[in-house]
Amino acid sequence: MMEILFLLAFCFVLIFTGVSMLGMVLAIAAGFAVMALIGMLGVMFKLLPWLILIAVGVWFYREHKADKAHRSRMSYRR
User: Fold this and answer.
1) pLDDT tens digit string along 9-63?
2) I want to staple 19 with a disulfide (CB 3.0 to 4.6 A). Which of 1, 2, 14, 49 is the partner?
3) Where does the sequence pass through the membrane (predicted)?
4) Cα dist. 18→27, 53, 67 in Å?
């Protein structure tokens, strides 16, 4: 929501200062790209603890699965 408000305020400032329509469209596109990248970076940092937790869970699952497969192969050899 803050990104949209920023872009609207940016657009109005450009209109009041007398920037052409093409300049305004280019500035809005550049502002949108920057705000989208910053927003994605913020979401990544917000979700980072959950991503680490998922990675640790997958690692434990794979280790348990490999250990179980190793034990079952050892029982067939006896």
Assistant:
1) 888 888 888 878 888 888 888 888 888 898 899 999 999 999 999 999 999 998 8
2) 14
3) 37-61
4) 13, 51, 70
Residue pair 34/7 in contact (Cβ under 8 Å)? The answer is no
Dihedral (Cα; 21, 26, 27, 33), 10-degree rounding? 150
Q: Which structural domain, as residue segments, surrounds residue 56? A: 2-77
CA dist., res. 63 & res. 26, Å (int): 52
How many structural domains compose the chain? Answer: 1
Average pLDDT over residues 3-10: 79
Q: Which amino acid is at 17?
A: T
10 touches 28 (CB < 8 A): yes
